[in-house]
Amino acid sequence: MNLENDTPSPAMKPYLPFALALLLLLTACGTTPMGTSVSPEVSPPPREPTPTLSGGPVSTDSPPPKVTEVPITRLPLEGPAALRSAEYSGMTWYGETLVLLPQYPDRFAAQAEGADGALFVLSQEEILNALETASPLEPRALPLWWGDLPKQISGFEGFEAIAFDGETAYLTIEASPAGGMKGYLVRGLLTPDLSALRIDIDSLTEIPLPADLPNRSDESLLWTPQGVAAFYEVNGAHLNPAPAAQVFSSQMTPVVQVPFPRLEYRLTDVSTLDGQGVFWGINYFYPGDVEQRTSDDPLAVQYGLGETHAQSEVVERLVAFRWGERGVTLLPQAPVYLQLAADGEARNWEGLVRLPGRGFLLVTDKYPETLLGFVPWP
Description:
Elements: H1 16-28, E1 69-70, E2 73-74, E3 88-94, E4 97-102, E5 117-123, H2 124-133, E6 140-145, H3 149-152, E7 156-165, E8 168-175, E9 182-190, E10 197-207, E11 218-224, E12 227-232, E13 234-235, E14 244-248, E15 254-259, E16 263-270, E17 278-285, H4 298-303, E18 315-324, E19 327-330, E20 336-338, E21 349-355, E22 359-364, E23 372-376
Parallel strand pairs: 1-20, 6-10
Antiparallel strand pairs: 2-23, 3-4, 4-5, 5-6, 7-8, 8-9, 9-10, 11-12, 12-14, 13-16, 14-15, 16-17, 17-18, 18-19, 18-20, 21-22, 22-23
């Protein structure tokens, strides 16, 4: 080839197409005719999708978000109501009077002026004053008459829940006869001056249980426009796949079963309904309840865990529900996680009410001791 002339010589012209083809082939292979490599264009790696919380499993590459936990202010109790033997199993308002329900009221017959047993009461004013002054509270006895009711129930294991419609009280009872667990509903009448609560023994009505689990029955009662609703305490997917509230009329006849949402762990008590049909429930897990252990808790997946809950198996939280025409639904909001005890010991909260304008009041049974606590609105 004549390098001084742009025009190839006649002798080279027949080979020109072959040379051009060879040049194109070498270029495609990443090599120039001079033996140097041509760096191919490098595309950036695809971006990993951002994990989202949509009610399904959370990516293992990203832990669930943290939610704020709420501390509990203890309200010290004095007198017989402060004893561990009170073993409270429920709590509710009668007007502006807080009514505390011992599981076995007959343990306090001595405080009840000849009655069969006693519940305990505090005024809302006393509670608000105690919050301001940190002074102790001494609940007063509310005499209870129930005749031979415990003898009529085989395997009687005490009261579990209480709710009011005016002066009419509704209470649930748990029993464990030889044939399996039983639950009952009973009605009583409260005198407006709080001098007596008298149980109507003839009103005793059995509540069908959705499962036969040891020491499990209906631990929550809610007065609704349809009647009084009883909630079974276990509503997890693998133990109670079709949870429902049992609604009874004021005459103690079954009215309807109302669908209830899936809720892992125990439901130990509920507050009263507000004007929008909203109520709250205690959602509790003690690690010793191995049958309720699960790695699939939709609320934790969707909303995350609080700081102390992320380091413990114990679950102590308040969950918001709505009572509606088509059943009970979960409100689309994070639970209120309670700050767990510093020593890691689980507190078996069994009673819940809203304290108007302030937050919540909770009470334990005997584990780890009798505790009355205040939880502010988060």
